[in-house]
Design brief:
The complex is a heterodimer of chains A (884) and B (97).
Chain A (H helix, E strand, L loop, with lengths): L17 H7 L50 E10 L4 H10 L11 H18 L4 H11 L14 E5 L3 E6 L2 E5 L1 H10 L2 H6 L10 E7 L8 E2 L5 E2 L2 H21 L4 H19 L20 H5 L5 H6 L7 E8 L7 E5 H4 L3 E5 L5 H10 L7 E5 L5 E3 L6 H10 L5 E5 L5 E5 L9 E9 L4 E3 L4 H4 L7 E5 L4 H11 L20 H10 L4 E3 H9 L18 E3 H8 L6 E4 L19 E5 L2 E4 L4 H4 L7 H32 L12 H27 L10 H27 L5 H8 L5 H9 L2 E2 L1 E2 L2 E2 L24 E2 L9 H36 L3 E2 L5 E2 L5 E3 L20 H14 L1
Helix pairs in contact in A: 2-4, 7-8, 12-13, 16-18, 16-20, 21-22, 22-24
Chain B lengths: L27 E4 L2 H10 L9 E3 L3 H6 L6 E8 L3 E10 L6
Parallel strand pairs in B: 2-4
Antiparallel strand pairs in B: 1-3, 3-4
Classes of the chains: A alpha+beta (884), B alpha+beta (97).
């Protein structure tokens, strides 16, 4: 089955013929006055009622429609003298240069033209339009011909001066070509020759004899408060044209001296030129009385604020808001905090029924300024009433009384309303999710930290947009399909994309580590945060005091029956895993909803962590449960960390003198190793690696030694840093930072690279004048032995700045390039869909894949790309059995 | 376009013209008979012109001797999807822009 399709064969833009302009015209505009003495639009003036009207009253004299349905009608001006169309001046110049001044044929021999004609026709038949390349080629060849190959007439060079003046260099001196003469020459060109020059209509149409007058709808006049009329720039320009045109005609008819006629013709040309384009080079722009340049037709279209980029390609919406975002961990993950000022502007239409009428009446009585209020009321007949200007409580009361079922009330945004929340760039479907509104004081949007990963948001000044769906249908779709809760698992690989970050992970670790024991009071203080009223588990320690472990508290959040195990982030990847006997408590074991072993860190509850506890909860117990889990988790962890306290300090990574001595020794060893290598190289004993020069080989080997050296330095230093120190802890648990950060801060920064190599440029045979020429040592090429804590030497700092600058430039370039690549990819794939039979098809139903992804698995619903994770299921079953 | 089209011959495998079907990276290509092709089309509720294309100048097409208009069945194997059957119709290279 195929869908019947109407195909647009082609669209072409060509200059209109004078005849066509007259045909579409409803009136010849001859009066430069717009209104008569009584202030009525003058007939044959620029606001002639036959051109259509823009006032809300009256009817158009041409079509009989009122202004809101009348599309407007074109008029025309008969120009007393032809005028060059300024945008075609270049084309006219090309054509004049390529054609004979006497017989108007192209200045190429017949045979050549024949060949070109065939080529052009073939091109036209294939593509449906004329080839600009062929036309250019012909002009190039013809413009320097001295004698016409057809009639033998001598040719003179034609120059284009300014925007629209043509001069011909004759032996008697430079002669001005009048537009009328030019038009005459163009008229004589045959249709065939015109096509060869890339003109499909007639070349003489590029010289205007009739000017179309756009309807007033295109150039509306505005009424000022003082009652005055202000006309559009185009109207001003058209009055200029008509005035000069009339004067020119009178002078010609009166037989005025040629100089006057010429002057007026030039003036007419100037007005027409600036009417079409008021920014032509060489032409002083026409100015308004105030000195502001007028807007020509070209100015309306071009540029960022032009018709295309602003109105046609650009899109704007109502019922939207934008402001800075900030965090609020006391919100639920699917909520968004909306400033009260914004809530008073954004509205939701609510239809009055007998069930909500009392509530809505109360809102109306608040008016538009008091918060839960109403901005508009729409009566069943469609009349809208604005409450913003009604302040009198008595009046409001009256209005409130007057509503009845069937009215629509546009009330302020209120708690629980559904809104779409978005952060650019919107690369994801998760970049725009539906949140529940919480109206809050202050001026930022508030969101829960756990939803930062899908938006890729942070709070260093990020702004986000908010949209209010108006129709019930849109609200329902947002609630069901775009809901944050239903986006916990990313469609990219089926794992959770939301989850605990930063301090929440630190807190989870501190709560669930073995040494954490809580008194009954502490336990209840934590559980009060989630309103837990259920029974407490048996205390882990009974005497001398009842104490509970953090793991027991965490278990309260876990669903009953959950059985799972994983390796925590803090796992040291020992050669042989001791599992249950892990010395670091990194083996996480949950049996029947009880966390028995292991600490909770990034691997269990972090975002973008597949096969985590959070993942299993979301998959096996549903998104709703997972969202509830995250909400409760965030409150408990926050409260726990508040009580526990957590600070990091530079002293966390202080190392004893002994460590520094060891590190120094290691550094000397590295330097020695590199020196040895350089010696080997200088003796000529270095073996060249395949595919590399000797020098490259040396560089590679040096880089390798230095990289290993830095790592071993980091390793040495980290041995002296306490594992439980807060700084070490945040990297180990995955809350923030990585081991390299610590190495660079405490031990050694390492090699600064430019284009993946050591720093090689600078002075002749050396990087800086502080080194000797041909020094190949590490210090001379940007290896930084210092660390951030002790500080860099001046030379090291310089190298560091070089590397830093490069990475800055790289990220700027990379983001724009990959952004554009992604955009193109998206446009290529946007209309593909998975059909009911499992095939992937495009909009024309062409088959792209015979089975989605080759295996028909919906990745969004998969377990990390697989339909089922058999291994994990077997493990869980075995563990459950073992526990029994 | 009035250019005469070259007829492609099935050349025996040789040093300069290796047997592509033996290459590890080339999946199995089978030319379908007309009935088979028809069956496939009705199975997928589609028409010949909606199948993915393959040029008649493609080396494997030349080797298995498929003609424009033929449907080729390709049996691919990979680690993620396992066995995956694909169909492509042979088109004249000169007719594809």
């Amino acid at each position: 089955m195929s869908v019947p399709i109407k195909k647009i064969k082609k669209i072409s833009f060509e200059p209109a013929s004078p005849d066509y302009i007259r045909r579409i015209s409803v009136v010849e505009v001859t009066s430069s006055d717009i209104y008569d003495e009584d202030g009525f639009p003058k007939r044959k003036g620029l606001s002639d009622r036959r051109l259509g009207l823009i006032e809300p009253y009256g009817r158009c004299e041409t079509c009989g429609c009122p202004s809101y349905t009348c599309p407007g009608h074109f008029g025309h001006i008969e120009l007393a003298r032809p005028v060059i169309h300024p945008l075609y001046a270049k084309k006219i110049h090309e054509i004049l240069s390529a054609t004979c001044r006497r017989c108007s044929r192209i200045l190429l021999p017949k045979e050549v033209l024949k060949r070109y004609y065939r080529r052009m026709r073939e091109y036209y038949e294939k593509n449906g339009f004329l080839s600009e390349e062929i036309a250019k080629e012909i002009v190039q060849k013809a413009k320097n011909v001295k004698y016409c190959p057809h009639c033998g007439a001598e040719q003179y060079k034609i120059t284009l001066v300014g925007a629209t003046s043509f001069y011909e260099k004759t032996p008697y001196g430079e002669e001005l070509l009048l537009p009328a003469q030019i038009r005459q020459r163009l008229t004589l060109i045959s249709d065939e020759d015109a096509r060869l020059l890339g003109v499909i209509t007639r070349p003489e149409y590029m010289v205007l004899t009739v000017l179309p007058v756009p309807p007033p709808a295109v150039r509306p006049s505005v009424f000022l408060e003082s009652g005055e009329r202000a006309e559009d720039d185009l109207t001003h320009k058209l009055t200029d044209i008509i005035r000069i045109n009339n004067r020119l005609r009178e002078n010609i008819e009166a037989g005025a001296p040629q100089i006057i006629v010429e002057d007026l013709s030039n003036l007419l040309q100037y007005h027409v030129t600036t009417y079409i384009d008021n920014s032509m080079p060489g032409i002083p722009p026409a100015k308004h009385r105030s000195g502001r340049p007028l807007k020509g037709i070209a100015q309306r279209l071009e540029g960022k604020m032009g018709r295309f980029r602003k109105n046609l390609v650009g899109k704007r919406v109502n019922f939207s808001a934008r402001t800075v975002i900030s965090p609020d961990p006391y919100l639920e993950i699917d909520e968004v905090g909306v400033p009260i000022e914004i809530a008073k502007i954004l509205t939701v239409p609510e239809r009055v029924t007998e069930y909500n009428i009392e509530k809505l009446r109360k809102l109306i009585m608040n008016g538009a300024d008091k918060y839960p209020g109403v901005n508009y009321i729409i009566r069943p007949d469609g009349r809208k009433r604005n409450l913003r200007f009604i302040k009198d409580p008595e009046k409001l009361k009256k209005i409130a009384e007057s509503i009845e079922p069937g009215y629509i009330v546009e009330r302020h945004l209120m708690d629980g309303d559904i809104v779409l929340f978005n952060r650019q760039p919107s690369l994801h479907r998760l970049s725009m999710m539906a949140h529940r509104v919480r109206v809050l004081p202050y001026k930022t949007f508030r969101l829960h930290l756990f939803v930062c990963p899908p938006y890729n948001a942070d709070f260093d000044g990020d702004e986000m947009n908010l949209h209010v769906p108006q129709a019930r249908e849109a609200q329902a779709e947002a609630r069901l399909l775009m809901n944050v809760i239903n986006q916990i698992l990313t469609p990219r690989y089926g794992g959770p994309i939301m989850g605990a970050l930063h301090d929440f992970i630190t807190s989870a670790y501190l709560l669930t580590k073995k040494t954490t024991l809580l008194t009954k009071k502490e336990v209840w203080e934590l559980l009060a945060n989630i309103g837990y009223t259920g029974p407490l588990p048996e205390p882990a320690i009974r005497k001398p005091k009842e104490l509970w472990t953090g793991k027991q508290i965490f278990s309260i959040l876990l669903p009953e029956g959950l059985t799972y195990s994983l390796k925590a982030k803090i796992c040291e990847a020992c050669e042989e895993c001791k599992k249950e006997d892990c010395p670091y408590d990194a083996y996480v074991l949950v049996i029947n909803g009880k966390l028995l072993l292991g600490v909770i860190d990034k691997k269990s509850i972090g975002p973008e962590q597949p096969e985590s506890i959070l993942h299993v909860i979301a998959k096996d117990y549903g998104n709703e449960f997972a969202a509830d889990f995250l909400n409760k988790l965030s409150r408990i962890l926050l409260s726990f960390l508040d009580r526990h306290g957590f600070s990091i300090a530079p002293t966390d990574i202080d190392v004893p003198e002994e460590a520094k001595r060891v590190a120094k020794k290691k550094m000397d060893e590295i330097k020695r190793k590199v020196q040895e290598l350089i010696e080997i190289y200088k003796r000529g004993e270095l073996k060249r690696l395949p595919g590399h020069t000797l020098r490259e080989t040396l560089e590679m080997k040096i880089m390798q030694i230095l990289a290993e050296g830095r790592d071993s330095l980091g390793e040495i230093i980290s041995r002296y840093i306490k594992r439980e120190s807060p700084t070490a802890l945040i990297t180990r648990t995955g809350a923030r930072g990585n081991p390299l950060n610590i190495t660079q801060t405490a031990a050694c920064l390492g090699q600064q690279s430019i284009r993946g190599e050591r720093v090689l440029r600078g002075f002749k045979h050396r990087t800086l004048s502080h080194f000797k020429q041909y020094d190949l040592g590490p210090e001379a090429h940007g290896f930084v032995f210092s660390n951030y804590k002790d500080g860099l030497t001046p030379l090291e700092l310089f190298f560091h700045a070089m590397g830093g600058r490069e990475s800055l430039v790289d990220t700027a370039v990379r983001t724009s390039q990959s952004g554009y690549m992604y955009r193109r990819l998206l446009y290529a794939l946007e209309d593909l869909y998975v059909d009911y039979d499992g095939t992937v098809r495009d909009a024309d139903r062409n088959i792209i894949q015979f089975k989605y992804g080759g295996d028909g698995i919906s990745v969004a619903k998969s377990d990390h790309g697989k339909a089922v994770n058999v291994k994990k299921i077997v493990e869980a079953v075995l563990m459950t059995e073992g526990a029994k | 376009m009035s250019k005469r089209r070259k007829e492609f011959k099935i050349e025996p495998a040789s040093e300069t013209n290796p047997d592509l079907t033996k290459h590890v990276l080339v999946p199995e290509h089978i030319v379908l008979s007309e009935e088979e092709a028809k069956k496939i089309l009705s199975e997928y509720h589609t028409t010949l012109d909606q199948l993915p294309r393959i040029l008649d100048t493609d080396p494997i097409v030349k080797q298995i001797g498929a003609k424009p208009g033929d449907v080729i069945k390709i049996i691919r194997r990979d680690d993620i999807a396992g066995r995956y059957v694909y169909f492509r119709r042979v088109v004249r290279a000169s007719e594809v822009a």
